[in-house]
Amino acid sequence: MGRQQHIARSVVRTIITRTNGGARRSRNPLAFLLALFSALLSLYDLHLQKIRPADFANLRRKHWEVTDDAYTDSFQPGEGAGGRDALKSIGDMGFSGSTFYSTADQKYLVKSVPRYSEYSFFRDDLLTPYVEYMATHPRTLLVRICDFLGASGASLGRLLGIAPSHHIVMENIMYGRDVAKKRGDADWEDWDLKPTSYFYPERDIADGALTSEATKNQLADEFHGKIILSRAQADDFFSNLEADTKLLAEHNAVDYSLFLVRIKVPQPEAAADSGSSQAASEIVPTEGPSVPPSPPSWRTGVASPDGKHIFRAAILDFFWAKHKIQPRFMTLLITLYNVLISKKGPMSITTTPDEYRERFLKMCRGIVEAREE
Fold it and tell me: Are 170 and 112 within 8 A, CB to CB?
C-alpha cells in the first residue's frame, strides 16, 4: 500500500470511528501495546485524533444540517470501489507539500496541513474565532471546515517528516462537477485567485527563467473575464467579503485566496440538440454542508442575471499568519532582498494583513460587473 493510501486510511478510520465526541474505543492491554508498537514503526499510517470535535460537530449538526450518519456515509467506499477507495487522491503536492483527497460522493475534500506554522496558527489562534464566526454568519464565504485532525503520539513517519501530521476536512465547492461531466450537461471552470501584483520570486526573478513551468503554474491563477451579477447580488458578495476578510486581518492572516467556479448553464437550444434537460436548479446542491442558507448562496451557486452562468466562490487557505516563526523568517529574507539586491516589494506571504486585505478586496471588485435590474 502506497503513501497516499496509508494517509487516506488513517483519515477515514478517524472520521468513521470517532464521530461522537472523539471518544476512543476501548481495547485490551495487549491490543493496545501492539497498536502502539505498530504506530511507532509506521511511516505513513499515523494515529490521528479529532481536535475540538464537539465544536465541529456542533457546526455540522446545528448550523449546516449534516447528521452524523450522513457525514460518515460520505467516507464510505463508493460503488464499485471494492472496499478500497473511500478517499480518492486528487491534485498535486503544491508548494506546501499538501496531499488532497476527495470523498467518493464528492461532498468533502481532505487537505493535509504539514507546516507547523500553519496548523499551529489555526489550532491556537484562529480556531475559536472561526467556530464562533461560522456559527453566526451563515452566508460567509469562508470555506466550511467540518473537522480538524492531528496526529497523537510519536511515529517514525512523523519524526522523519514524510507523513503530514494534520488534516482538515472541508466542503467541496466543486461538488456536482463529476456528475455533470458524465452527463455532458455543464461546462465547469475554476480559478484560485490571489492578487498578482505582489513579488513572486518564481515569476519575477530573471523573468522566471530560473524556475520550471510546472512550478510557475502553481502560482495564483488570473481571471480575465467578469462575474456578471445583479446589483443586489454584487452588494451581497462584497458585504460578505468585507466581513470575512476583516476577521482574517484581525488575526494576522495573509495569502488566502478566492476560489471561483463558473458553471455554464445549457441554454434551451443547446439542451434540445444534446438531448439534455438539465436546468440551473439541477446544478446547485440542496443538502448540507452546502446549505443552509437555502439556495441561492455562493456555496450552492448564484445565477447571473442573463441565466447563462452559475457562480460559486469561497475563501480558502487562511492558515498563513504574520506572527508565526516561518512567516517572520520569510519576511526578513524578502526585506534583505529588497535592500541588498533589487527592490521588488513584499510577497503575498510577507505583507501586512491590512495591506493584503486591501489588495484582495480590490482584486475581487475588479472581476465583478454589476448590472442594474
Answer: no
Kind of pairing between the strands at 227-230 and 368-371: parallel
3-state class (DSSP) for residue 150:
strand
* DSSP summary character for residue 179: H
Percent of the chain as helix, strand, coil, to the nearest 5: 40, 20, 40
Model confidence at 272, in pLDDT bands (50, 70, 90)? very low
Query: For residue 114, is the peptide bond before it cis, meaning its omega torsion is within 30 degrees of 0?
Result: no
Q: pLDDT at residue 284 above 50?
A: yes
Domain that holds residue 316: 177-371
Of 122, 147, 171, the domain-final residue:
171
pLDDT in tens, 286-299: 889 999 999 999 99
Report the sign of the C-alpha dihedral through residues 218, 261, 319, 161, in that order: negative
**Alpha-carbon gap, residue 201 to 205, rounded angstroms:** 5
Q: pTM of the predicted model, to two decimals?
A: 0.85
Helix (H, G, I), strand (E, B) or coil at 310: strand
Contact 149, 11 (CB under 8 A): yes
Report whether pLDDT(254) > 90.
Answer: yes
Find the helix or strand (DSSP H, E) in which 111 lies: strand 108-112
- Point out the domain boundary residue: 137, 171, 205: 171
Please indicate, yes or no, whether residues 215 and 315 belong to a single structural domain of this protein: yes
